[in-house]
Design brief:
heterodimer, A: 617 residues, elongated, B: 80 residues, alpha+beta, SH3 type barrels, 5-stranded antiparallel sheet, 2 helices, 16% helix, globular
């Protein structure tokens, strides 16, 4: 007999420590998917009762009430009320409350309890509340709410067993499902405050860490300096810390390639494996360390509570182009990848601001562009210093990031003025207390990101690489022909057709060839070039030297710079277009986005090329 | 006194909120963050560089950031 395990939903305000509790209960056994019909991420996982029976847990998006003002909140409401088509209603709720913020969190808790589902309250982060000088009476709270209350400290795994035991009990003997009780919002809020007051045994002035830290981190001048330093450190780390692991990955792939060359006779299959699969996939996987370092920083900033402070500091500057501090967080995430960035815009209340943020998110230099930048800069920009120990290569890279940001700001101003015609933006956000990020939670999250990236490398990029290899390898150039294999192949002929369009902006045949598969994923541009040169290489030795020197020998500096400028505004990867279509419910905005970015990229590359040429480069 | 004019670190109580002057969405979010007449409030930080905007306030046990334009709709009374 198979019976579905009970479904339990974790629900609560944002910043109540819900995800930490979810991680503590389910460990790494988590599944990320989307809720049916919407793009809100659904995190589910298995937990078990003390005797081993499984229970399925879902981590609902944080919400302030069942009267939603964002897409995330709407999902939470629909799941709790059992109104989401294709999703079963939870058998029980675990309401997660921040013990240090009862006055605010009890409002939503009362609303949830009134829905009549079997419910347990997790009085979470009780240690932080005590640190701030608050003593609470959980029993009094349980009596006032009419449901069991368990004290928990998710990050220290405190209270998890009593919580599961209590959950087991209410699932076995559910209280009679009652009809939702309707009372006015005002009365509900008053009741929430009364209950909170009654539950607080004593209150002494605590150490108020958050307030003291805010005095520094939100300082009118110091706060700005700290934020900029943090961002600088973040980008430095992306390059500095990744060198060694990148070297290991590179030698790993080289070892694999050599191994195959040793055991297999020269031929089509060997070429497919070494020139196609290993050269292509390897050149992308190599960027995993940089992507993980970037995500590590973003996750730490979020988990510590600093991210909303960064939004506070940036709000005025964002307002200058019609956005707000709300947009800062999705845009910062877009430096890792535009896809999570675009999905993070769901927390922006103002729909016009949300749309504008989605449209400019691809201009933030995502990690997929790094491979392209790194290869071209490495090949063309001398590794000299410009004084003060600042390297020229780093400076150029920094310039590319800045170009993307300035382009985005300009685009935002134009879009908000003429496209969305938004007159005002708004900024209204809760700033959570600071807390020490828990490494286990960060590790789970990083692992999930790494897995998504590797899956992409193993599927989209793998497929694109194979198709490209085939297009480059067939038809075979006849023996003794003075036309090279690449020129002779199908891909070469497609590139021939494209060349007249891109030659005015300084692009050569190789680039015409590389920018087509780059649509699948930007980093494929590098593997495409690598494949082109690997296939075209006359002998083994030539193929063994890395891509950079070959490019340096073949391209003019003006062409290389134009190629970089193109990638600053680069045409989308297909995943970004797909996520934009989903998030904006139609083709109108993704088409608009792709068109304006194409125009920008073409113009920027052209201007760069002709300017460089006029300087004789 | 309007919230945006409230001196820093001065504990006050919200007297009234001019909901009419606020866009629906902001009013709704303000309510869900616990802004209501009778609630204690304190201005903590003001803006960056030369701007005096946005504002960080303590409401209940929470810190909330909001823009001065919204803060201007909130009338407070300094508690003795």
């Amino acid at each position: 007999m198979t019976q579905m395990p009970p479904l339990v939903a974790l629900v609560g305000n944002p910043n109540a420590g819900k995800s930490a509790l979810f991680n503590a209960l389910t460990g790494a056994r988590q599944k990320i998917a989307n809720y049916p019909g919407v793009t809100v991420e659904r995190k589910s996982g298995r937990a078990s009762f003390s005797d081993g029976r499984p229970v399925e847990m879902i981590d609902l998006p944080g919400a302030y009430s069942l009267d939603p003002d964002s897409l995330d909140e709407a999902v939470t409401r629909d799941v709790v009320l059992g109104n989401l088509a294709g999703h079963r209603r939870p058998d029980a709720l675990v309401i997660v409350l921040d013990a240090g913020n009862l006055d605010n969190h009890l409002r939503f808790a009362l609303e949830l309890i009134a829905q009549g589902l079997p419910t347990v309250v997790a009085l979470n982060m009780i240690d932080l509340a005590e640190r701030d000088g608050l003593r609470l009476d959980a029993q009094a709270l349980a009596r006032a709410l009419g449901v069991p209350v368990i004290e928990t400290v998710a990050v220290r795994r405190r209270g998890l067993e009593p919580l599961m035991a209590q959950l087991d009990q209410i699932l076995k003997a559910p209280r009679p499902v009652t009809e939702p009780v309707a009372i006015s919002v005002g009365a509900q809020n008053q009741r929430a405050r009364d209950i909170a007051r009654a539950a607080i045994v004593s209150e002494t002035a605590g150490r108020q860490w958050t307030r003291r830290l805010d005095a520094i981190l939100l300082h009118p001048v110091g706060g700005v300096v700290i934020l900029l330093s943090l961002l600088f450190l973040m980008f430095q780390a992306v390059y500095g810390w990744s060198e060694a692991p990148i070297g290991w990955i590179e030698s790993g792939f080289a070892w694999l390639s050599d191994g195959i060359k040793n055991v297999m006779p020269d031929g089509l299959l060997r070429s497919f494996l070494t020139d196609g699969v290993i050269a292509g996939v390897g050149s992308v996987v190599v960027f995993l360390p940089q992507i993980l370092i970037l995500f590590l920083f973003i996750l730490l900033l979020e988990a510590s509570g600093y991210m909303t402070r960064a939004a506070f500091v940036m709000d005025r500057m964002m307002a200058a182009v019609g956005l707000s501090g709300h947009s800062f967080i999705p845009l910062l995430s877009s430096f890792a990848c535009a896809i999570p960035g675009i999905m993070a815009t769901r927390t922006i209340m103002d729909q016009k601001e949300r749309l504008a943020t989605i449209l400019i998110a691809p201009l933030m230099t995502c990690s997929a562009r790094l491979p392209v930048y790194t290869v071209i800069i490495g090949a063309f920009i001398p590794a000299s210093t410009v004084g003060l120990g600042i390297g020229l290569q780093g400076l150029v890279l920094f310039g590319l990031y800045i170009a993307g940001i300035l382009g985005a700001m300009l685009a935002a101003a134009v879009i908000q003025r003429f496209v969305t015609q938004s007159r005002t933006s708004s900024f209204l956000i809760e700033m959570p207390r600071y807390q020490w990020p828990r490494l286990g939670d960060i590790a789970i999250n990083l692992w999930q990101r790494a897995w998504v990236f590797l899956r992409r490398a193993g599927t989209i990029i793998f497929a694109a690489t194979i198709v490209l290899w085939a297009l480059l390898s067939f038809p075979k150039a006849p023996d003794g022909s003075n036309v090279s294999q690449v020129e002779y192949s199908v891909a070469g002929r497609i590139a021939d057709g494209l060349e007249p369009i891109v030659s005015p902006i300084g692009f050569n045949h190789d680039i015409a060839l590389a920018i087509i598969p780059a649509m699948a994923a930007r980093e494929v541009a590098v593997s495409a070039l690598a494949t082109v040169y690997a296939i075209d290489a006359a002998d083994e030795d030539a193929a063994a030297t890395s891509l950079g020197p070959k490019l340096a020998a073949d391209w003019s500096l003006a062409t290389a710079l134009a190629f970089l400028a193109w990638f600053v505004f680069a045409p989308q990867c297909i995943s970004t277009i797909a996520v934009t279509r989903r998030e904006t419910n139609g083709w109108k905005w993704p088409i608009f986005m792709v068109s304006y970015l194409f125009v920008l990229a073409y113009a920027a590359a052209g201007i760069t090329y002709w300017t460089a040429r006029s300087f004789g480069l | 006194m309007q919230l945006d004019r409230l001196p820093l670190n001065q504990i006050a109580v919200i007297r009234s909120i001019d909901w009419e002057s606020l866009p629906d969405q902001e009013g709704h979010r303000l309510r869900s963050l616990g802004f209501e007449p009778g609630v204690a409030i304190e201005a903590l930080h003001k803006g960056i560089l030369l701007w005096r905007d946005p504002l960080a306030v303590r409401i209940g046990r929470m810190t909330v950031a909001l823009r001065t334009k919204v803060a201007a709709a909130i009338d407070c009374e300094i508690s003795a």
